[in-house]
Amino acid sequence: MPTPIPHAITRQDEGVLIEWDAAGHQAFYPSRALRLACACAACVEEMSGRPLLDPASIPPDIRPVTLALVGAYGLRIQWSDGHGTGIYTFERLRQRCPCDRCRGEREGARSGVGR
Ligand SMILES: [Zn+2]
Ligand SMILES: [Zn+2]
Questions:
Q1: Which residues, in sequence order, are CB contacts of 69 under 8 Å at separation 6+?
Q2: Cα 36 to the chain's mean position, in Å?
Q3: Cα 105 to averaged position of ligand 2 atoms, centre (Å)
Q4: Which of 17, 52, 85, 90 has the most crowded CB, counting CB atoms within 10 A?
């Protein structure tokens, strides 16, 4: 699958709105969940994938301050807690797309496996 490229990205205090295409596929990524999903070397141990970030250290009112495109493959977010080293690749964001349709597809793929 080619790297997904968003049609539009909008910063809001509550989160980041990504429109994947012009046909109405869009999803809202809430700030705190997105901050907790940061996969940079300061938040996740590179070798083991062990999370280093303590969720309790993230303020509930965390917000994205600025967004910057990284090449054509990702997004860098500067957070209000001063953190800004994480790059969110579009591929990863697309995989985690929280819209109803993608959630349904992921759950469909998992059905039968149990939880
Ligand atoms: Zn990070
Ligand atoms: Zn989606």
A1: 75, 76
A2: 9
A3: 9
A4: 90
Torsion of CA 31, 34, 39, 44, to 10 degrees: 80
Tell me how crowded residue 69 is: count the other CB atoms within 10 A of its CB: 13
Rounded to 5°, angle at Cα 80 from 39 and 85? 30
Query: How are beta strands 15-19 and 64-70 bridged, if at all?
Result: unpaired
Residue 93 contacts by C-beta under 8 Å, 6 or more apart in sequence?
A: 4, 18, 29, 75
Rg of the chain, C-alpha, whole Å: 15
Q: Which residues contact 37 (CB under 8 A, 6 or more apart)?
A: 88, 96
- Give the number of the ligand closest to the Cα of residue 51: 1
Cross-strand bridge partners of residue 52: none
Tally the residues of the chain: 115
Neighbours of ion ligand 1 (CB under 5 A): 38, 40, 42-43, 86
Q: Tell me: the pLDDT tens digits for 93-114? A: 999 999 999 999 999 887 655 4
